[in-house]
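Appendix B, record 7
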Amino acid sequence: MRKWIAASAAVLTVCLLLQAAEPEKVDLGILHRIKSEAFAGNSKVMDTMFYLTDVYGPRLTGSPNITDAGNWAVKKLQEWGMANAKMEKWGPFGRGWAATRFSAMMKEPEFQPIIGFAQPWSPGTNGPVTGQAVMAVITGPDDLEKFKGKLKGKIVLSAAPHASTLNEEPLSHRLTDAELEAAAGAPDPAMGNPASLPLGFARPGAGAARGGAAAAGRGAAAGRGANPRAFRDQLNKFLKDEGVLVVLTPGNGPDGGTIMGSGAGSQTTEPDNLPPPSVIVTNEHYNRMARLLEKGLPVTLEFDIGAKFTEPQDSFNLVAEIPGTDPNAGFVMLGGHFDSWSGGTGATDNAAGSAVAIEAMRILKALDVKMPRTIRLGLWTAEEQGLLGSRAYVKDHFADSADMKPKPEHAKLSAYYNLDNGSGKVRGIYVQDNDQALPIFQSWIAPLKDLGVTTLTLRNTGSTDHIAFDGVGLPGFQFIQDPLEYGSRTHHSNMDVLDHVQASDLEQASAVMAWFVYNTATRPEMMPRKPMPKPGAGRGGRGQ
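C-alpha cells (predicted):
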C-alpha cells in the first residue's frame, strides 16, 4: 500500500512538473487572422502615419499641432468603433510653443541660404534682423566676464565647430544574429544595462537630447562644477542682457544637412529667463561661418524667425478601449508617446509607435474576437520633457511613486506594452528583469520566427514610457526594434519625417503588438509582477 502511495505520489509530482513546464497555449488561428489583417493590403498604419506627420506634425507638447493631431486621432478611433476614445487632461504642463516662420541666410562674404530651425521655447526676432557673426564659446560661468560688453547687436556662434569626418559606416542598421544573441544573455541586473542593443546614438550630445534639460550644443560643458539647468538660465539672461540678436549652435548631425537638437529652454522657463532667438544650424554651414571668422573675415547673417507662445496650460493623454467580456478580468494596455520635437514632423519619434499601437487596436477590433480583458490604448504627451504624460497617468490611475500606495486599478492591469525606438521591425522584447514573464513570452514569440521576432532579454531598457509603469510595480515592457536610421539620422532631427519610415516594418510591428496584447487579454492568469518598489525609489534601466 505504501509503495502504491509512494508510486502515485511520484507520478503526481512528475505530472505537476510537466504541467508547470508546459508552454502557454497559443491560438495559431488568431495569429493567422492578425497577420492577414496587418498585411495583405488591409493595413491602415501608413494612413495614420500620414496624418500624424505630413498633416499635423510636428507635435510638440503644448502646441496647436498636437491638439489638432489628438482631435484627429480621437475621431478616427471612434470611427473604428473604439469605446471611451478621448483626450484625458493632466497637468499642469507649462507654456506652449510653436514656430510660425523661419528664414536664414548668409549675406557676406557671399550669399548662402542656411539650413536650420528655431529651437523650442526661444522667441522670434519680430521681423528680419541682420548682424555680424562672432564666435563666443561659453562653457561655464567663468567665461561670461570675458564677453561682457562685446556681444550687443551680434549673432553669436556659441559652440566650437563640429569636427567633420568621413563617415564610412552605413547610417542604417538592422540587428544581426550575433547582436540579438548577445542581448539574450542578460548581464547581472544590478549592473544596469552596460551593453544595450545599438540604436546608433554615437553623436555628440546625444545623452542630453531627452527632456530638454539643456540647450543642445550651448553650455554643453556647463555641468562641470555647476548645475546645468541653473547655468542655462544664467547664460540665457546674460546673452539677452548683452543684446544678442540670435544665438547659433551646430546641429550634431552626421552629414548632408541633418540637424539634431531639442530645446533652447523648456515649458517651465519663465519669460524673464527666455534666451535670445536661438537657432540650430547644420554642421556644414556652421563650420563655414567658423572658418571665415577664424581667418578674420566678416560674416553678415540675416534671420527672420516667428515663434508663438501660449499661456501655461494642461496637456492630455489619448485613451481608447476595446471592452472585454468579463468586467472582473482587468485590462491590458498598449501605447507609445504621441509628442515629438519640432525639427521634423516627429515620424520615427514617435508617430511610428503611436501609429503601430493605434493599428494594433484597429486589427483586434476588426477581428471581432471575444477577449475577457479590456484593451486600453494610452498615447502620452510630454515624453520628451521627461515622461510627464505617462507618469501623470500612472499617478492618477495606479500609484504615486512617492508613497507606493496602490489605487484600485493597480490590481487590474495585467501588463503595458510600449513602442518607441523608431520605425524598425520588432525583433523581440525587453523582459525588464521580470524572470517569471520569460517563459510566457517564449511561447508567444515561438510562432513569430518567420516575422523575425526571436529574442528575449531580461535586460532593462529605459528612457521611455514603460518606465512609468515599471516604477510602481506594474509589468511594463518595451519591444526590441531594428534601429535603422533612428539614432544615426532621424532621432530629434529635421530628417525625422515620413520618408524615413519603413511601411513593411510598421505593418510587422502592428501584428506583433496585436499578438502580445491578444495573448495578455485572453490569458487565464494576470501577467506576473516583480515586487513593489519602496516609496520614492522607482526603478528602470538606464536609457539609450
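Remarks on this record: The first helix runs from residue 2 to 21. The chain has two domains: 26-91+314-522, 99-162+204-306.
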